[in-house]
Design brief:
Blueprint lengths: L10 E5 L2 H4 L21 H4 L10 H8 L8 H4 L3 H15 L3 E5 L2 H4 L10 H16 L3 E7 L5 H7 L6 H17 L5 E5 L9 H5 L9 H26 L4 E7 L3 E3 L4 H23 L5 H8 L10 H7 L4 E5 L4 E3 L7 E4 L2 E4 L15 H15 L3 E5 L17 H19 L4 E7 L19 E3 L11 E3 L1 H11 L6
Parallel strand pairs: 1-2, 1-12, 2-3, 3-4, 4-5, 5-7, 6-8, 7-11, 11-12
Antiparallel strand pairs: 9-10, 13-14
Amino acid sequence: MKKSRFPEGFLWGGATAANQFEGAYNEGGKGLSIFDMVTFVPKEERGNNIEMDVKSAKELEELLAGNGGDNFPKRRGIDFYHRYKEDIALFAEMGFKTFRMSISWPRIFPNGDEREPNEEGLAFYDRVFDELLKYDIEPLVTLSHYEIPLNLVQKYNGWADRRLVDFFVHYAETVFNRYKGKVKYWLTFNEINISTLSPYIGSGILIDEVENKEQTIYQALHHQFVASARAVKACHEIIPDSMIGCMLARMEVYPETCNPDDVLEALHENQMNLFFTDVQVRGYYPSFMNRYFEENNIQIDMHPGDEEILYQHTVDFLSFSYYMSMVASSAPGKKKEKGNFFSGVKNPYLEASDWGWQIDPKGLRVALRQMYDRYQVPLFIVENGLGAYDTVEEDGAINDDYRIDYLRAHIDQMGEAIKDGVEVMGYTSWGCIDLISASTSEMSKRYGFIYVDQDDYGNGTLERRKKKSFDWYKNVIATNGEVL
């Protein structure tokens, strides 16, 4: 027993994304999204590589013609679309104060560039929000969580085209007006930094169709920064009591040694990771990017008024995902370990998950302190969790003590950071119900407190079953983090 370190009103909950758990990809007037085109590749075939980027128009045409197989896991998700009442009731039983979810952009605007929204899509989220509010669960809604309408990729090459700014702002204003009495907490772009690692998933860019890859990616990111700032402006105007944040995939990077070259390398990696939040929280491009742009032949095309909109409409809070830390080395030829979308030198002091992600609870405390020192705005951990193989015992039990150990250690370090003086709004564990993996499209990589009976090929009853971690997390919430 410990005295609670967590403030009254702390937002405990869980996190999901529409493309990983909604399903019903061709129902209710929904259009195709970029993730609907990502096929499943078994681990024994791809190794540790993440196979999800579509790189060319030709490859996309092949997939649309059905030449990429028939296993598109993100199209089926776990059928939340039809089972949302059952799932939300389970979240309520755990005591969720908030539930992070995303709106599927192509469910509202199937092609992304229409003027009139799809009423069936709007009505679906009305029902979901009403169900959440029935249990006093605050929705935390991401506007764009890898859910770019496929038409915007085919017609404009995604965010490489400035016209997407207006399309996105129109979509944002539409949902702000529709749900202004139901949703207070919003996020603009999920893990906005992923575009540098996966241009198709992060920005809807077919990278083989462009001449200068780096130029295209950073120009697309500038368009997203402007769109985010304009969405912040619209949100504050339409929903005066709202809070709207940005979202980053945070990778705290340590130097491999105290060699100053390693320290500089780690500093560079951390700055490149925080560049995105520098723009969205501080409101301007950091000076350290000038050299990077110059050395990589990047010239950002800024329209008149861009700098003003970025500076005047910064986010209210900074949210981020945290799964692991990384290690940087200046030594050439160092072997790197893959984890999430990132890679780094193996840390000999840490254990790793079944997918090679190095487990570092104290790194979360480091990340919280570093970011709060840098920005002095509220922080919100909106993704943290352990992807693991779960076994259903003969009696139906799922004893996921490894998941409890992972989450306990991270929540404990989050509490220590709060004692250190960091302002943390809340914590939403990733994949609170088993869903399709973003990076590998596996169902067998499970994060949830709730087991879903489905395999990597879509076989199963979709029955929901509580794991051991379900009651553990329920007690964490009930005691406001006093009992871990």
